[in-house]
Design brief:
Elements lengths: L7 E5 L5 H11 L7 H9 L3 E8 L5 E10 L2 E9 L8 H15 L4 E7 L3 H9 L3 E10 L2 E9 L2 H6 L40
Parallel strand pairs: 4-5
Antiparallel strand pairs: 1-2, 2-3, 3-4, 5-7, 6-7
Protein backbone atom coordinates (compact mmCIF):
# COMPACT_ATOMS: atom_id res chain seq x y z
CA UNK A 1 0.00 0.00 0.00
CA UNK A 2 1.26 3.45 -0.91
CA UNK A 3 2.58 5.51 1.96
CA UNK A 4 2.98 9.22 2.58
CA UNK A 5 5.42 11.53 4.23
CA UNK A 6 4.81 14.27 6.79
CA UNK A 7 3.64 11.78 9.39
CA UNK A 8 0.58 10.68 7.41
CA UNK A 9 0.16 7.15 6.10
CA UNK A 10 -2.39 4.95 4.37
CA UNK A 11 -3.89 1.79 5.80
CA UNK A 12 -6.98 -0.35 5.18
CA UNK A 13 -10.21 1.08 6.57
CA UNK A 14 -11.65 -0.87 9.52
CA UNK A 15 -14.96 -0.83 11.36
CA UNK A 16 -13.40 1.41 14.00
CA UNK A 17 -12.84 4.06 11.31
CA UNK A 18 -16.49 4.33 10.29
CA UNK A 19 -17.44 7.00 12.86
CA UNK A 20 -14.57 9.42 12.07
CA UNK A 21 -14.95 8.83 8.33
CA UNK A 22 -18.68 9.58 8.47
CA UNK A 23 -17.94 12.71 10.50
CA UNK A 24 -15.58 13.87 7.74
CA UNK A 25 -18.12 12.84 5.11
CA UNK A 26 -20.87 14.95 6.68
CA UNK A 27 -18.61 17.96 6.95
CA UNK A 28 -17.38 17.73 3.37
CA UNK A 29 -20.62 16.64 1.67
CA UNK A 30 -23.54 17.91 3.76
CA UNK A 31 -26.02 17.49 0.90
CA UNK A 32 -24.87 14.09 -0.35
CA UNK A 33 -23.26 12.42 2.67
CA UNK A 34 -23.26 8.66 2.90
CA UNK A 35 -24.81 7.09 5.97
CA UNK A 36 -22.95 4.80 8.33
CA UNK A 37 -25.01 1.89 7.00
CA UNK A 38 -23.99 2.69 3.41
CA UNK A 39 -20.31 2.77 4.32
CA UNK A 40 -20.47 -0.44 6.32
CA UNK A 41 -22.32 -2.09 3.45
CA UNK A 42 -19.61 -1.01 1.04
CA UNK A 43 -16.84 -2.29 3.30
CA UNK A 44 -18.54 -5.69 3.58
CA UNK A 45 -18.34 -6.33 -0.17
CA UNK A 46 -15.42 -8.44 -1.37
CA UNK A 47 -15.20 -6.34 -4.53
CA UNK A 48 -14.42 -3.21 -2.50
CA UNK A 49 -11.15 -1.73 -1.26
CA UNK A 50 -11.33 1.11 1.28
CA UNK A 51 -8.41 2.96 2.83
CA UNK A 52 -7.85 5.84 5.20
CA UNK A 53 -5.13 8.45 5.47
CA UNK A 54 -4.13 8.82 9.11
CA UNK A 55 -1.87 11.13 11.06
CA UNK A 56 0.71 8.90 12.69
CA UNK A 57 -0.18 5.71 14.54
CA UNK A 58 -3.58 6.14 16.14
CA UNK A 59 -3.90 9.75 15.01
CA UNK A 60 -6.76 11.54 13.27
CA UNK A 61 -8.27 10.27 10.03
CA UNK A 62 -7.66 13.03 7.47
CA UNK A 63 -8.75 11.32 4.26
CA UNK A 64 -10.38 8.22 2.85
CA UNK A 65 -11.06 6.52 -0.45
CA UNK A 66 -12.89 3.51 -1.83
CA UNK A 67 -12.73 1.31 -4.91
CA UNK A 68 -15.20 -1.09 -6.50
CA UNK A 69 -13.39 -3.66 -8.65
CA UNK A 70 -15.33 -6.09 -10.84
CA UNK A 71 -12.80 -6.83 -13.58
CA UNK A 72 -12.38 -5.68 -16.22
CA UNK A 73 -14.15 -2.59 -14.87
CA UNK A 74 -13.79 -0.65 -11.65
CA UNK A 75 -15.17 2.49 -10.04
CA UNK A 76 -13.72 5.09 -7.72
CA UNK A 77 -16.54 5.05 -5.18
CA UNK A 78 -15.34 7.94 -3.06
CA UNK A 79 -12.24 9.94 -2.27
CA UNK A 80 -12.01 12.86 0.14
CA UNK A 81 -9.49 14.83 2.18
CA UNK A 82 -10.11 16.95 5.28
CA UNK A 83 -10.00 20.65 4.45
CA UNK A 84 -7.25 21.17 7.02
CA UNK A 85 -5.02 18.86 4.98
CA UNK A 86 -5.57 20.08 1.42
CA UNK A 87 -2.58 20.64 -0.86
CA UNK A 88 -0.38 18.08 0.83
CA UNK A 89 -0.63 15.40 -1.85
CA UNK A 90 -3.03 13.25 0.16
CA UNK A 91 -5.66 13.16 -2.58
CA UNK A 92 -3.02 12.12 -5.11
CA UNK A 93 -1.73 9.41 -2.83
CA UNK A 94 -5.22 8.06 -2.18
CA UNK A 95 -5.94 7.97 -5.91
CA UNK A 96 -2.61 6.27 -6.59
CA UNK A 97 -3.57 3.57 -4.09
CA UNK A 98 -6.94 2.98 -5.78
CA UNK A 99 -5.47 2.83 -9.28
CA UNK A 100 -2.75 0.39 -8.23
CA UNK A 101 -5.20 -1.81 -6.33
CA UNK A 102 -7.51 -1.79 -9.35
CA UNK A 103 -4.61 -3.01 -11.47
CA UNK A 104 -3.79 -5.80 -9.02
CA UNK A 105 -7.40 -6.94 -9.29
CA UNK A 106 -7.32 -7.03 -13.09
CA UNK A 107 -9.20 -3.79 -13.77
CA UNK A 108 -8.45 -2.28 -17.18
CA UNK A 109 -11.12 0.45 -17.23
CA UNK A 110 -11.62 2.62 -14.15
CA UNK A 111 -14.57 5.04 -13.96
CA UNK A 112 -15.57 7.89 -11.67
CA UNK A 113 -17.94 10.80 -11.37
CA UNK A 114 -16.84 14.28 -10.35
CA UNK A 115 -18.93 17.37 -9.77
CA UNK A 116 -19.23 19.61 -12.82
CA UNK A 117 -18.50 22.65 -10.62
CA UNK A 118 -15.20 21.31 -9.28
CA UNK A 119 -12.46 22.04 -11.85
CA UNK A 120 -9.65 21.38 -9.34
CA UNK A 121 -10.72 17.79 -8.82
CA UNK A 122 -11.17 17.36 -12.57
CA UNK A 123 -7.60 18.58 -13.06
CA UNK A 124 -6.30 16.05 -10.56
CA UNK A 125 -8.09 13.21 -12.34
CA UNK A 126 -6.82 14.33 -15.74
CA UNK A 127 -3.31 14.36 -14.28
CA UNK A 128 -3.80 10.65 -13.57
CA UNK A 129 -4.95 9.91 -17.11
CA UNK A 130 -8.74 10.11 -16.70
CA UNK A 131 -10.69 11.56 -19.62
CA UNK A 132 -14.26 12.83 -19.82
CA UNK A 133 -16.71 10.45 -21.48
CA UNK A 134 -20.10 11.91 -20.56
CA UNK A 135 -22.30 13.85 -18.17
CA UNK A 136 -24.94 12.68 -15.71
CA UNK A 137 -27.49 15.45 -15.30
CA UNK A 138 -28.48 16.28 -11.70
CA UNK A 139 -26.43 13.36 -10.35
CA UNK A 140 -25.72 15.42 -7.27
CA UNK A 141 -28.45 17.42 -5.58
CA UNK A 142 -27.07 20.71 -6.88
CA UNK A 143 -24.73 19.80 -9.73
CA UNK A 144 -24.21 17.55 -12.71
CA UNK A 145 -21.55 14.86 -12.66
CA UNK A 146 -18.82 14.58 -15.25
CA UNK A 147 -18.13 10.91 -15.97
CA UNK A 148 -14.46 10.11 -16.47
CA UNK A 149 -12.59 6.97 -17.43
CA UNK A 150 -8.99 5.79 -17.19
CA UNK A 151 -8.28 2.92 -19.59
CA UNK A 152 -5.22 0.72 -19.39
CA UNK A 153 -2.53 1.18 -22.01
CA UNK A 154 -1.35 -1.73 -24.15
CA UNK A 155 1.59 -2.21 -21.78
CA UNK A 156 -0.68 -2.12 -18.72
CA UNK A 157 -3.06 -4.65 -20.28
CA UNK A 158 -0.12 -6.94 -20.99
CA UNK A 159 0.90 -6.61 -17.33
CA UNK A 160 -2.63 -7.44 -16.16
CA UNK A 161 -4.19 -4.09 -15.29
CA UNK A 162 -3.87 -0.41 -14.46
CA UNK A 163 -0.87 1.17 -12.75
CA UNK A 164 -0.54 4.69 -11.39
CA UNK A 165 3.11 4.72 -12.47
CA UNK A 166 2.24 4.30 -16.15
CA UNK A 167 1.98 7.21 -18.59
CA UNK A 168 3.84 9.48 -16.20
CA UNK A 169 1.03 9.54 -13.68
CA UNK A 170 2.14 9.55 -10.09
CA UNK A 171 1.34 10.84 -6.66
CA UNK A 172 2.21 14.51 -6.98
CA UNK A 173 2.23 16.69 -3.90
CA UNK A 174 1.62 19.74 -6.10
CA UNK A 175 -1.75 18.41 -7.30
CA UNK A 176 -4.71 20.31 -5.89
CA UNK A 177 -7.06 18.54 -3.54
CA UNK A 178 -10.49 19.72 -2.49
CA UNK A 179 -13.46 18.41 -0.56
CA UNK A 180 -15.20 17.60 -3.81
CA UNK A 181 -12.63 14.97 -4.69
CA UNK A 182 -15.36 12.66 -3.47
CA UNK A 183 -17.18 10.86 -6.22
CA UNK A 184 -20.30 8.81 -6.05
CA UNK A 185 -20.42 5.26 -7.31
CA UNK A 186 -19.00 4.76 -10.80
CA UNK A 187 -20.37 4.94 -14.30
CA UNK A 188 -20.89 2.27 -16.89
CA UNK A 189 -19.42 2.62 -20.36
CA UNK A 190 -22.65 3.87 -21.92
CA UNK A 191 -23.18 6.56 -19.28
CA UNK A 192 -26.71 5.45 -18.55
CA UNK A 193 -28.41 6.14 -15.21
CA UNK A 194 -26.55 4.26 -12.51
CA UNK A 195 -28.90 2.11 -10.48
CA UNK A 196 -26.27 1.69 -7.77
CA UNK A 197 -25.97 5.40 -7.09
CA UNK A 198 -25.46 5.84 -3.35
CA UNK A 199 -25.08 9.63 -3.14
Amino acid sequence: MAGMTSGIGLRPMTGADVAPVIALERGLFPKDAWTEAMLRGEMAEASRHYVVAQEGEGGAIVGYAGLRAVPPQGDVQTIAVAESHWRRGIGSTLLTELINEAGKRGVTDLFLEVRSDNPRAQELYRHFGFTEIGIRRRYYQDADAIVMRRSATVAERAAGGLSASANGTRADTRAATSPDLSTATGADATVTENEEKTR
